[in-house]
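Hi R.,

Quick one: here's the DUF3098 domain-containing protein sequence you asked about.
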Amino acid sequence: MDNANFRRFFGAFLTILGTFVILFALVAFLKDGQAVLGMRVKNLGEAIVPFLVGMVFFIAGVSLINRT
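And here's the predicted structure, written out as tokens:
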């Protein structure tokens, strides 16, 4: 696997992972304190961390795909 194909594959992986983490954060916030996949999110402060991590993964993946 050459460098360009690896970068595209890794970019797609980061984009998909970021999408799932963002969706998890949104669902966990909407569950109103109930456990989602074993994790409880009680307020906005606890929901913002997985959302921001998901956004970093998503933006990094999209930019990695666009640069190759």
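The CA atoms of residues 28 and 38 lie 10 Å apart.

Cheers,
M.
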